[in-house]
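User: Fold both of these, please.

Assistant: Here is the first one.
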Amino acid sequence: MYKSIKSLGFIVFNIAIGGTGVFFYYQDILNQQATEISALNNKLQKLVSEKQISFQQDVLTTKNIEFAETNTELKQQVIDLSLSLYQAEEKLEDKELQITDIYNKEIQTKNIQEQQYIQSNEYIKSTQLSNNVSNVINTLSNELGLSAENSQQLKALLQAKAESDFEAANAMLELNGSEDSDQISRLNETTEALFAENQAIYEEKVAELLSDEEHEQYKAYETKQELARLADAERFRINELNFIVGDLSETQMSDMHSIFKNAYNFDNSTVKLGISGSPYAKPQNGINPDKLMMMQEHIENLLSNEQLEKYQNHQQKRGIK
């Protein structure tokens, strides 16, 4: 019995030893499989990671290609826009040139029209003559103490005379440069007659409008204006002569004043009304050809030989013998 139990114990021990070995055997196998699984898992994760990297690289490559294509398209758009801008600028420059040309032509046409209008009879009558008349009448109204009604009536009379004198003088100006002496002579006679008629009509109507005292004051005004005009003309001629021949001596200057005063020979008793305010009227005391020739001779006699030579050369250049 004891031997049986001992044998059984030995068998059990051997079985236990053998079971333990089997356990450790299978435990090793499980450990190896776990290691292999872990390795496979690492490989799988690495593959997944590499795949993701590859995928991302593919995505980046695709994005780069798309970006490059987009960049190319944008560059082309920039080129197209630059070309369109250049063409637009060219059209704008052409348009600006056209507008400038049109503007310049309009300005040129306007200037020509203004010049033509300024030289027209309408402008001279409505502006130049009207301004002259208004200035004279304003002064006369103050000096004569005219009423508003008389001032307006006198203004209308003087405006009518100024326009009539202009028409008479203008007919003569139109023959400027003509070589037809007979025609010039006839027109000159007609013009003189028109001036005389205009003057007579004005004098008559002014005498009816103004009192005797106002009439005398008007004559005094015209006398003062004429003396001022003669003084200006005398000063101008002497300064011109002084410029032509050189410095005149005091004696020569004094003698020149006497020559010019004698040449004009102003007579207060023959003063005409309406000359002031009518710039185209026949002057109060113009120099006639005979007086002009005498004045020329007197001037030449006063000059030294050197001055006389300068004076004669200047006269020849002006076409005066």
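And the second sequence with its predicted structure:
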Amino acid sequence: MTINIPKCLSFLALFSMTMFEYGSYKVVPFFILFLVVWIFFSRRVIAKERDFLSIPTLVITIIIGIFFGFDFDYDMRWLSFILWTLFAWVSSLKINWVYFKHSSNYVILLHVVFAVIDYISFKLFSLDLSSYLFGLDSRHITNAKPFVRATGFMGEPGTLASMLLCLSLISYPQKKILFLIFVAMLIVQSPYLVFAIAILFFRRYPIRKVNIQSISVSLLIFGFISFVMGPRILEILTGVDTSLLYRVDLLSLMFESEYFLIGSWFASSHLVADVGFFLELVHQFGLFLGSIYMLMIASSAFPLLLVKLKAFAGFFPLFIVYRKSISGRK
């Protein structure tokens, strides 16, 4: 039995990216070292199409940050960003994007299975697995959402949903993956997973293949999603769930912030990522660099800009470096 090194490494990397709350950036140097040794002994790299924006922009960002905003006191967020950037670049020399696509399906499976176990454990026995096994305080029930929601490996349901949406943008849109994300939507109750289902569904059943059967199935699925998520969406719109109002307040404060033009460069821990990744990019890197990153991501994975994601998490540089492969231009 032979071990598929690219698939194993891409699986470990993707899973580590989702586990950023546990400081998973600490394992990234081992990934980088393994890739460098592998490249050295195989003496082969992938013939990668030139991209005059992705890697140079990330390098410029690191250089600016090191000279003007780098400080290890910032919870190692800068170090996490640098390490994941190096990993994305080195992996692009050896690992095709297709391996990340295959591996993301298995990472989704792992997260959803654990989320189901976590949901049942908390619902029936009030056992918080995230706290019991990993020492991470979880938010299964909050004042704004007084009902049980799965958190899985994460500290809160929204983070789990965000990670699953990121993985859905990478994955192959197989039926079993659609089913897994659908199950996750039922127990996590997050609009992010409605987006994930829509993305996977339309990637698997493109508009050009429209017929009576596909229309009927689409109406049935989205009718059921509306039935499940309808009460939650109604609470958000009527203000019972204050999460939307909280995000609007954050958005207005951001425009008044000193970091809007020049960026905080990880010196601020404001929860602007809750509004969407687009605002996190501007908050961390300033309006100019943040806008460049937004345009780069929008060309290959626009939904990523709407998700709750931190700039120091590994998905960001991965999507930037592999953006041409993601968009199918390579």
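The mean pLDDT is 77.
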